[in-house]
Structures are given as structure tokens and as C-alpha cells.
# Entry
Amino acid sequence: MKKFSYLVYGLKILSDIECSELVALDELQEHEYDVLIEVHPVSSEIHERIEDGWYSSYRHESMWFHIPEIATYWMQDRNLISIELCHGADLPMAKQYLLGSCLGMIMLQRNMIAIHGGTIVFDGKGVIFTGDRGAGKSTITSALRLKGYPFVADDVSSVEVGQCHFIHPGFPQQKLCQDAMHQFGYQLD
# Structure
């Protein structure tokens, strides 16, 4: 099976699933990745739990959840995501859970925090603007980017907690409402 290599949240990803939403890397070797995403059956223990009516289990080293008619996802040991797709599953929907919940759980296992907000660099430090949906996070980061402040991320950033804290970007795209796009002079053709 062909493997795809990506960078997101500061993590090098080697994946069985193509994710055009992510920044592509040159082909990673087996020993070069931080996280492996594989399409692979989950454990029989997880299947037994699902048959008993469970839909999830969360322990620091092993987290799993089941979305009926889509997939079962199993995150292990800070570096492995196993996905067992249901027969006839909608792959774009399965990818939404992979790129959202699964990567979020891997970040938790790695002592990283995912923050929903726009991020820029100000005076050599990362600044994350958070707020409710529609509060103007993307508009603020876009305005600051146009004023010359380096843009890091629009929607989600991860904060790596340790001796020094680092902010890593999520997806390389920016979401703006039409009003803000007109205000900044973007062509909407």
C-alpha cells in the first residue's frame, strides 16, 4: 500500500490515507515519522466492547472510539492511529474524525494541547487569538498578517508543553467570511 507523508501540529505523519488538507513532505522512511496512521483492524477486545454497547474508552496510553457506519479509531502509545473502516464507509467523513479527534488524542498522549484559535508571531513569540465561532479570530489574524506579522495558523494550533513551550500550526488554510474578504480586498471570483 502506498504511504503518504505529512507535517501537521509539528508532527511528521506517515499515513495509509491520503490527506490533501495537510502539508505534504518528501517521502518519510519507516524510522522518520512521529505518528503512523494505518488502515488496520483494531483489537478483538475493542470489538467485544463495541458488541457490549461501548462506543469509546480513554486511557492515556490507549484511546479508541467507534462511529457507527464510519470507522473504529484506536490511538496508541503516542505514535499510532489504527483505523478500521466500516463496510461502505464515507471516506471524507472518516477523514474528518481522523484529522480532528484522532490527532487531538495523539496530541494529548504527547502532552500537547490543541487550541482553537488563530495564531501569529508578535515580537518573536506566538500569540493565539481564541473566541467563540464567528467572533473574528480569522479576521484578526488576517488583518495582522496583512500588516506584516508572520502567520502561523488560522483554526487550530498545538502547544507543546515542556522546558520551553512551542506553538505548531495545524492546517495551512485560512477561513474568512465574505464580509472580511471584501474588507481586505480579496477577489471572490
Notes: Residues 4-110 form one domain. Residues 112 and 160 are 5 Å apart (CA to CA).
